[in-house]
């Protein structure tokens, strides 16, 4: 029973593989044709003869646009603090400044030191880094 099911499964896989290869071959043939079509097409630009004033205005406008493109590509985007690349406010609600983070860490270690002093917590239950900080704080006192 299982041998029949296994044989059917393998036959099914081979049929799918054959279909996939046929599709890939067909797609490759289409891509080969498209490539030849693209090579045959050429872009033809007509030149326009303008009167002196019009030509000067167009040349001036072209130079202005090229200068603007150059200026925009050379300058890096600037964004105000608290905004993303496009100037929208950042979506992060949890923004802390460096000072408030340091204050929170200092408060945490002072609380741990008080608990160690009061022997409500064993220093050996803390992580190795926390133990080092608490020991250093106790030595400094």
SSE layout and pairing:
Elements: H1 2-40, H2 52-74, H3 98-117, H4 128-140
Helix pairs in contact: 3-4
Overview of this protein structure:
This protein is mainly α and 141 residues long. Among the domains are: 36 residues; 42 residues. Helices cover 67% and strands 0% of the residues. The radius of gyration is 36 Å and the shape is flat.
In short:
This protein is 67% helix and 0% strand. The protein has helices spanning 2-40, 52-74, 98-117, 128-140. The model has no long low-confidence stretch (mean pLDDT 78).
Overview features:
141 residues; mainly alpha; 4 helices
Residue windows where pLDDT falls under 50 for at least 5 positions: none
Distance between the termini: 80 Å
Q: By helix and strand content, what is the structural category?
A: mainly alpha
What is the ordering of alpha helices and beta strands? Answer: HHHH
Tally the beta strands. 0
Average pLDDT rating: 78
Q: What share of the residues lie within helices?
A: 55-70%
Based on Cα principal axes, name the global outline.
flat
Approximate strand percentage:
under 5%
Describe the largest sheet: none
Total DSSP helices? 4
What's the alpha carbon Rg, rounded to whole Å? 36 Å
């Amino acid at each position: 029973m299982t041998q029949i099911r296994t044989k059917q499964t393998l036959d099914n896989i081979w049929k799918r593989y054959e279909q996939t290869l046929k599709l890939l071959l067909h797609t490759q043939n289409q891509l080969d044709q498209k490539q030849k079509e693209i090579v045959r097409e050429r872009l033809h630009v007509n030149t326009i003869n303008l009167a002196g004033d019009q030509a000067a205005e167009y040349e001036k406008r072209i130079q202005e646009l090229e200068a603007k493109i150059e200026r925009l590509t050379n300058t890096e985007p600037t964004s105000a603090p608290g905004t993303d690349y496009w100037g929208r406010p950042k979506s992060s609600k949890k923004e802390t400044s460096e000072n408030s983070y340091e204050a929170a860490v200092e408060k945490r270690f002072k609380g741990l030191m008080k608990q160690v002093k009061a022997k409500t917590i064993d220093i050996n239950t803390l992580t190795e880094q926390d133990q080092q900080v608490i020991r250093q704080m106790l030595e400094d006192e």
